[in-house]
Amino acid sequence: MIDTRRLRTLRAVADHGTVTAAAAALHLTPSAVSQQLVALEHEVGHRLFTRDGRGVRLTAVGKIMLGHANEVLAQLERAEADVAAYTTGEAGEVTVACFATAISAVLSPAIIALRAAAPGVQVRVLDAEGDHGLAMLLDSEADLAVAVEYRGAPDAADRRLSRLPLYAEPFDLVLPHDHPLAGAATLVSLAAETWIGPYPGNPVHDVITFACQQVGFTPNLAHCSDDFRAVVALVGAGAGVALVPRLALRDMALAGVVVRHTPGPERRVFAAVRRGADAHPLLSPLLSALRTVAASLGTG
After folding, report:
1. How far apart are CA 236 and CA 128, in angstroms?
2. Nearest CA to 146 among 137, 138, 154, 157?
3. What whole-number distance in Å separates Cα of residue 35 and Cα of residue 7?
4. The pTM is what?
């Protein structure tokens, strides 16, 4: 009989690409992960991985097993949700991985609403920028992630996750107040400018780069910060121009800058849980609160 713990190990190695990275995510030693893989291969009767440079890749049988592992682990999530529902599930802790702007815009208001609707549910928040939130969710370090669509992200058909779209947020151009194009800037008119934005790996970096490439140039991102307040401060100091998500600008001091709405990219934000867990009585009221808050956002 196949040990389900080894299926989690199989998925972690497939997700991370190396035994060492999977071991860190699972809080195991690389030796323990290797032993679990060997044991699983013995149970299955086939090799599941082959070496690929410094990492590993799935064999054909490994891909088959990974598909079944996703189904089995999703069913276990549903079983836990059903048991929790049977025993009321009115009290407990939910860990949420969420990026900073969404913590302010949707998660914090949802926590306030949750106190009235489900006072026994306690929310623990982990600030997770870039693609870290989904990785933390898949590694079971978080129960729910609020994340952003970006190239390379798991898509809506990913069999490991259940997703709830929350909101689409436009980006605005931010320029020094004395910039020659401050009154009539467009994205393409700023092709030769110095740009300020997040580090590579942050989905916003990817969105900005792709938006600029769509109109014919690659932005010269000379200054990098994942903190949008720092980005705007640098614009105000005349260090460059920036594209900033609109909600990140809300309630921000905008001294020394002008903000221009411009046709361009959107940041699509969604909540995700491991597939099968969306009906869990600790998660469903939080998902409902997030949906309600997101519907009330004025992002246009």
Report:
1. 27
2. 137
3. 13
4. 0.69
Return the structure tokens found at 251.
Answer: 């309630």
- Asked whether 220 and 176 are in contact (CB, 8 A), the reply is no
Low-confidence residues of the chain: pLDDT under 50: none
Q: For 54-73, give one letter per residue: b (16+ CB within 10 A) or e.
A: eebebeeebeebbeebbebb
Q: Return the closest-CA partner of residue 218 out of 209, 230, 228.
A: 209
- Residue 128's nearest CA partner among 147, 111, 143, 113 is 147
pLDDT in tens, 70-109: 887 777 777 777 776 556 556 788 999 999 899 999 999 9
d(CA 149, CA 268): 6
pLDDT for 174-208, tens place per residue?
999 999 998 888 999 999 999 999 998 888 898 89
Q: Of 132, 267, 277, 143, which is closest to residue 206 (Cα–Cα)? A: 267
List, in sequence order, every residue forming a beta bridge with 169; answer none if it has no partner. Answer: 267
CA distance 113 to 247: 20
Residue of 156, 158, 136, 154 lying closest to 145 (CA atoms) = 136
Distance CA 38, CA 264 (A): 50
Contact 253, 228 (CB under 8 A): no
Rounded to 10°, the helix 108-117/284-296 angle is: 130
Nearest of 240, 269, 234 to residue 255 by alpha carbon: 234
